[in-house]
Structures are given as structure tokens and as C-alpha cells.
């Protein structure tokens, strides 16, 4: 479980400035993973805006705008990701907001590529380690910026 | 465990003689109680108090699994009400008598299938119930007086129970003949599972109304299943799971007693639901401590006289959160060990998880292996021959005491928070973020230890060679959603809007008067085919909604 080389490089200089929105989109109440991710990112020096449960694409959009977020993290455990994640991407596009979206939770391997194709920046599987989580979040932002 | 009979023969001690007398009256399964090598074994070893004797540390019944194995209750959801109905009938045709109903996420949250919140979630993780018509489909052709039905629902539990009663009465069955369980444990929703609708106090008022209603009119119904499972899954320690769950139980007892119900009129029908996790001896200690604590508190603090009020009878489920997405077949071994812990801990029923649950909802094959796993524990290992086979082992007795000590410290904190009332302490702990904070801290601590490599999870942070790619995961299409939307539209077209509006107004009126019971007006509303969400809303206008403070 060692961090990859690029993760170390990506997370250190830029991490303190990152503003991350974390939200549970939809009715799913499994928030253990997202809360752990919130602390991991905070420990990595990021600013976490934790919206918590029962968020809608509109509420997330509003928060992202208000908080000037660099990245949005969504967590889904109820097999709703194939509907809800693309809805979020479309909402951001309609609002002309260019913020990368990372999806975590229970996402089967075969759904990963379709999610990426729909515009999701990265998918965190159930096995992602803390270092990977921080590196991936930092990575999608620097990719977006470059 | 006392050693006062160690000087004489165990058979001569009064405790053992009393035990043996009740054991000899029990009807036993017709199987040999001997090892595979043919050695006959006793029904229990060691010292008293024996199984079936206060404080029941060693088991709630004298003969335990010699009389009846634990119930292998596998919980599952299936697309539409009609799909589930076919499954129910198949089960009944093969000798089953217990039906277990899983609802989809919108139903669990009190939302109709046509709510914008329901998009993408209708019929996914269980069956969608919008109106009495869906309940009619779900139980069509089944004699409700001949089955026992378990319904896993909390926030809108009163409405679902009312639909079940309404359905029974439509088919000519009396409500007093209905047997079953509704989970209806709202406290753990604020603490862990997060499927709440109203704020805690009005929610508990609804639970209390249901306890009053079932105590008076449905003697075979279990109105609350007090559940630690979700608390543990959310990240708590074993002792926190034990303590929060039992504290919630005490809180319901205090609420019902305050509403004027005698403790012995409802406590015998309270039951529990625990997690069976991977730390084998800690889990067994937890189960044993649960029985001892519940018995003592019910007798000493709440003045229960009926022995059945003191019995902590529980369902258990293996730990979904312990399952790994990496090398998922390893999960079969984890589940086997957890199932063994539940059996040695004296569970009354058990659900074993499927090995693919870290990846998706269970496939048929994985669910079958999970059932086979507990059948192997029950029929091949000999674990069912002797009650509390680990009782008396120094480590197990120490662990039982340690779990109890930690739990008592938490009760003392809650009692303090509530100025001498556990009920008020639980409310306070919900309001000040105590429960969610403790659970999140424990979850994070564990995660950091795994990440730092201090805790080894096989296939995740050690022994990672040979990860196999996933196969054959369950997929659920959107046909169910389309079907359900049409079904709901049809029902709304056919019903009398006038009766629905009048019935809902009545629910609102009674909601505003805490001295009246909500069950009768809810029954009238569902009989008029008011939808789940409409009834939820008719109370929401009085109760308000609960929004969790986002604490990390």
C-alpha cells in the first residue's frame, strides 16, 4: 500500500489550496466511507466542504459555486451511480462549470469505463487506500488545470 | 460464572438440577448428539447459571440448538411486488413459514416511486411499495394467518404495518392473528443508518403508538427489532455496538412505560439484531454480555417480572463491511468464521452475507454459497450439539466481562447526559453528535491502522497477489421502475380523491395531539389508497423533518 511516485509529487505542493466538496447524492445513507475520505483529505491538507446526506444535483451545484470548489466527490453505494453521476456531470455542463467529479462507493469494475466516458474524472473503488484517495483527488485537479 | 459447585458433583448442585429438569422437558431434534467419532456429548459443560437461567449469559433457552437450530433467515429483495410474491409462494411450497421483505430505498425513505428522489432507485435493493395495492400484489394468494412476516423498515414503519393490517382485514383475517416483526428501530437511524424522516421525539412517539397498538391488538407481533448491526457497519467498535444498541432498547422501554404500557406487556416481544464480525472471541464475548446486561437491567432497573421480558433474543448477520472487493472469494472464509461466532454466541437467527457484496448486490450463486456456509456450521461442525461450548474458558469469560464493563461505562455516560434517564440521554447523544462522532472516530482509527499496515487485511494490504477479476455480478434493469410508475398512476386514477384527502387530514389532526394513537387514522388512510409519501407528508406538516448536522 505504498503511494505511487506521482501521487507524492501531486499532493504536496498543490494540496493545501484545494477546496473539495464531498456529498452523498440521492437517498443512499451509507456515509462511513465518505466521512473517512473527508478526514483523509483534510489530513492531506485540503479544505473539505462536507455537505453530507441527501444532496441533489442542484444543492451540490449551488455549493460548488458558492465555495469556489476545485473538485466534487460523490459517494454512492446503492447501485444508483449509473443514473446519478451522469446527471451531476450534465448539470455541471449546463451551468458551464468546469469542476472535476470523482465518484466513490460500490462501483463494479465494468461500470468504471462508462462512468469515465460520461465525464467522471476518476472512480475510487472499494479498495482504495488513504494515500491513493488523496493522490487521485489531487491528480484530477492538476489534470484539469494543465 | 460461580465455582461454588466445584467441590461437589455438578449433578448435585441445585442450579444444575433445575437446568436438567427444564432440559428434560424440551423436545429435541432427532439427530445424534455425539462427535463424528461417536463420542456422546452433554448438552452443556461447566458451571451455572446454565442456559435458560438468569442472567442468561450462557443462552436464552435450556436446550438451545438441540431443540431447534437457529433460523436461517436470508434477507433479499426482488424487483416488483409480483416477483417477490412468486418467490414467497415458492418458499412456502417448500415448507418455509417465515417471509422476509426487503424494501427499495425510496420506500425506506417514505418516498413514492414517482418522486424525483426515487429516480434510479425504484425496485433496486428491494420491493417498491407505494400503496396498499402493492401490498396486495406482494402477499396475493398467501394466508397471512399462517405465515410470519419480517419487514425491514424504520422511518415509515407505521404506514407499512398499517398496510399489512389493512390487507389482512380485506382478506377476512383478524389483525390479532398476524405474526411477524417490523424493524422500526428509529434511534439507530440517527446514529448510523440514516434512514430517518422526522426529528427523534415525534418519531419515538410513532414507535410508542405502534407498541401500544400491537400490545393491545396484535399479540403475536414484534413491534421493534433493536438493531446494532448498522451501528457496527458504520464503524463502531464491538463494545459501542453493544452499548448503543442496548441503550436504545432501554430508551424504548422508558418511552413505552411513560406512555402507560406495563413493561411486561411489551418487553417479551422486543428483539435484537447484532453484527457478527471477524474478531471471533470479541464477538462471542459481546453476545454473551448482551444477554447478561439486558436481563439485569430489565429486572433491576425496569422492574420486569416476566422472565421473557429479560431475554435478549437476537438475530445476527455477518459483517458486510468486513468483505473485501479484492480477492472476493476470500470472503467465503470470513463469513464462515463469523457464522461460527454467531452460533457459539447463541444467536436465534442468522443471515450470512454473500462473498460478492463489496462489489454489487448478491448474485444467486453467491447467495446460495452464503446459505450453504451456515448450513455447514449447523450440520457438520458439531457446534449445535452443546450450548455455550466456550463458556468457562478464561479468555471468553474475561472478554464477556470486558464487553460488559465498557458497555456499562457508556450507559453511565448516557444516564448522566439524560439526568437519570437513558431515553433523554439517547436524545441528547443524537442532538449533540455523540453517537455519530464516536462511530466516525472509531471508523477512522481503524482505517488509519489498515492504511499504515498495522492491521492486516488479507488480499488488501498484504498477500495481494492473485486478485481475480469480478464475474457474474447481479444487474438490475430499469423495467421495474417503468412498471411501478404505471402501477402507481393507475391506483391514483382509480381511488376516490375525496376520501384520501379526508383521511390524510385526519392523520394530520391526530399527529398534532400526542395523547391520541396514530395507528387508526393511518389505517384509514392506507385503506383509501393514500400513498406512502402522502401519509408521510400528512405527519410531516406537524412533525417537521430531520436534517443531520454534517459532522466529520
Protein model, in words:
The complex is a heterodimer of chains A (146) and B (552). With 146 residues, chain A is of the alpha/beta class. Chain A has 6 helices and 5 strands; from the N terminus they run αβαβαβαβαβα. Chain A has a 5-stranded parallel beta sheet with strand order 2-1-3-4-5, with helices on both faces. Chain A is globular. The N terminus of chain A is likely disordered. Chain B is of the alpha/beta class and 552 residues long. The N terminus of chain B is likely disordered. Chain B contains 21 helices and 9 strands. In chain B, the strands form 2 sheets. A 5-stranded parallel beta sheet of chain B has the order 1-9-8-7-6. The chains are: A alpha/beta (146), B alpha/beta (552). Chains A and B meet through helix 2, strand 2 and helix 4 of A and helix 4 and helix 17 of B.
List descriptors.
heterodimer; A: 146 residues; five-stranded parallel β-sheet; 6 helices; disordered N terminus; B: 552 residues; alpha/beta; TIM Barrel
